[in-house]
Amino acid sequence: MSQSELTSHFHTTATGTRLHYLQCGSSEDRLLVCLHGLGGSSSTYTPLLPHLQTEPPGFNVVLVDFPGFGQSPLPPASAELSIHSHVSDIRDLITALSTTSSKQPVLFGHSLGGIVALHYAASYPDAVAGLALFGPGRSAAHLPSVRQRMLDLAAAVRSHGITSAADTAADQSNFPAASTGRTVKPEHREAVRQAVAASNPEGYARTCEAIVDLGHVDPDYGTITCPALFVVGDLDVISAPERIQALSPLLGGDSWVEVVRSGHQPILEDTESVAKAVGKLLEKAGGP
Fold first, then answer.
1. pLDDT value at 264 more than 60
2. pLDDT, position 2
3. Which end is more exposed in the chain, N or C (fewer Cβ atoms within 10 Å of the end residue's Cβ)?
4. Whose CA is closest to 81, among 203, 186, 168, 182?
5. Which residues are 7's β-sheet partners?
6. How far is CA 237 from the centre of its chain?
7. Which CATH number fits the domain that encloses residue 84?
8. Do 151 and 212 contact (CB within 8 A), yes or no?
9. What total number of domains does the chain contain?
10. Which residues touch 138 (CB under 8 Å, ≥6 apart)?
11. Of residues 110, 149, 79, 68, the one with CA closest to residue 229
12. Where does the pLDDT of residue 288 fall: very low under 50, low under 70, confident under 90, or very high at 90 and above?
């Protein structure tokens, strides 16, 4: 599948959230819903598209923009923006898109998207066929230093704009440090810089706060029984390999970890290894 085959759509949820998504594939095929991370968008999954089968029988691939990112508008300040609201929005979207297919969806999630996908699978354990999680996070609300760092990031974006967050993501947090000896392609840094810079600044700030909100606690991972693939970069400093190795056994079903050659952007940095790992997950999930 190529990016040119994607069509653009909007969905308004029961609570009034307006979600933009890109779609490719037959509505009669199994949904494959892809969720991006903080500062990302539906474009996060562009490198993986050629590896996903959408010709019948294939997958009905849906790439979602969270509120305030990509083409999804930011809800008003009075509207809830939280991990819970993201799960509710995705549930609403999946329900609307599942009217012509009886197959349970597969969820992909990068970073923040991985958090949302895990919460979704814990909330609806019988309604998910499989999970592919790329550098997912966990609740950090109980970690004072991490919580403060995210709150400071939100404050900085409100005070100084989104550019500083874009530069930090591209030059520091998302890729291996120069001291590791790993060379990072300039186009990869630029892709992340442009993605974060295109975010709605207030949406970015509110999402930072949502991630470390005191109401955000880890789901009951043991209720998740579908096949679950964790992909983590060997030099990821945001979702370190040892943390992902500790998370995987908490799930109640078949769960495993694949370590690839990357920082926090495995889909971008090691596409081939990610595609191979995803292929195994999709087979275990029952295929298209």
1. yes
2. 52
3. N
4. 203
5. 23
6. 17
7. 3.40.50.1820
8. yes
9. 1
10. 115, 218, 243, 247
11. 110
12. confident
CB–CB of 255/225 below 8 Å?
no
Eight-class DSSP state of 124:
S
pLDDT tens digits, one per residue of 186-199: 999 999 999 999 99
Give the DSSP letter string of 142-189.
Answer: T-HHHHHHHHHHHHHHHHH-SHHHHHHIIIIITS--GGGT----HHHH
User: Residue 1: what pLDDT?
Assistant: 52
Give the domain range for residue 50: 3-140+217-285
Residue 180 CB-half CA count within 13 A: 14
* H-state helical runs in the chain: 83-97, 112-123, 144-160, 163-168, 186-197, 201-211, 241-247, 266-269, 271-284
Q: Is residue 180 part of a domain?
A: no
Q: List C-alpha distances in Å: 192 to 44, 173, 187, 265.
A: 9, 11, 9, 9
Please report, as a single letter, which amino acid is at residue 165: A
Residue for token pair 């500790």: 246
Q: How does residue 55 score in pLDDT terms, banded at 50, 70 and 90?
A: confident
Residue 126 CB burial class (10 angstroms; 0-12, 13-18, ≥19): exposed
152 contacts: CB under 8 Å, gap ≥ 6: none
Give residues with Cβ within 8 angstroms of 30, minimum separation 6.
59, 60, 101, 103, 104, 105, 106, 129, 286, 287, 288
Does some domain include residue 146?
no
pLDDT at 102: 84
Q: Is residue 195 part of a domain?
A: no
- For residue 23, give the 3-state DSSP assignment: strand
Q: Which amino acid is at 284?
A: K
The pLDDT tens digits of the residues spanning 59-103 come to 999 999 999 999 999 999 999 999 999 999 999 999 999 987 789
- Residue 8 belongs to a domain: yes
